[in-house]
Design a protein that fits this description.
The complex is a heterodimer of chains A (about 110) and B (about 240).
Chain A lengths: L2 H18 L24 H19 L8 H5 L8 H15 L8
Chain B lengths: L6 E5 L4 H13 L2 E6 L10 E5 L5 H15 L4 E4 L14 H29 L2 E6 L3 H4 L5 H21 L4 E7 L6 H4 L3 H7 L12 H12 L10 E3 L4
Parallel strand pairs in B: 1-2, 1-4, 2-3, 4-5, 5-6, 6-7
Helix pairs in contact in B: 1-8, 2-3, 3-5
Classes of the chains: A mainly alpha (about 110), B alpha/beta (about 240).
Amino acid sequence: MTRETVILRLIYEAIDVVNEGLPPGATLEKAPELALFGAEGRLDSLGLVELLAETELRLQDEFSVSVSLVDDKALSQRNSPFRSVASLANYAAEVLGSELPGRGAGE
Amino acid sequence: MSEHDRVIVITGSRKGIGRHLAETFARRGWHTYGCSRQPSDLDDEHYTHACLDVADEPAVTQLFRTVRARHGRLDALVNNAGIASMNLAMTTPVATLERVLRTNVVGTFLFSREAVKLMRRQRHGRIVNFSTIAVPLKLEGESAYVASKAAVEAMTSVLAKEYAAYGVTVNTIGPPPIDTDLVRGIPPQNLAERVLDRLAFPRFGELAEITHAVDFFLSERAGMMTGQTLYYGGV
């Protein structure tokens, strides 16, 4: 299983947790193209924080490394890494890549 | 929920107030996690000690990973770890100021941030921070310490608002001088003139009195009590 696949699975697990707090009909689909934050996004800022916090915890558990997804780098990017599930997954992979150069999932 | 299912993290638990709290909660049967830079000799089946610097982000996240893996929950955090600097500002090195801010402010921020990630899941939690009566007394000769604790009080007010959405309260206790290592370094005459004589009750505080306030903030009925700083001694 590639690191990218693992990251996507962890984000989906985080979505499951966020969905527990959302009313029926407002729950998030587990799809790469799902818009998370921004003009078309499904989450408000509090919801985004919840999703990122849950994702961080899962990344830390899976890869045994301290990960912070919200930093100056993320906030200064022209295209927010939090606009969709796919962009979040790509960004998480990038952050992990700098923390775990050359390591695969679960190593 | 039984006391034996509850989980608490207490920073600076090797000695002083933190040690007393760690002993108390472990004896009650809480799963008690403490930390300090040096090892602890506290021997209790309910107590686990981690040697770390409270401002060391990877070490702190590792501690919370351990709590999460073992219990999947956290009921309370007591940010007790703190260092002081008794020195006039004119002769205080910047390195000292940075060291005090790092332990007292960064440590409190970091532990609170990681704690709420766990507490959020159960929509319930209690965070108790530590300040000092030196803040309202504006004690001369303690600018670094007082500034750091004033920052903790301000942070408490903001975190209380941010964390309320998750059912987590955040409060601060401002103790009087307690007979601990931190206070023993001050000459007795100096302490009496500068601090004790300015209190409505001019005496040292007792550890049991601190525990009483922690218990209050941790209690179920204190669920709407948040963003407060509780001082002792009538300052």
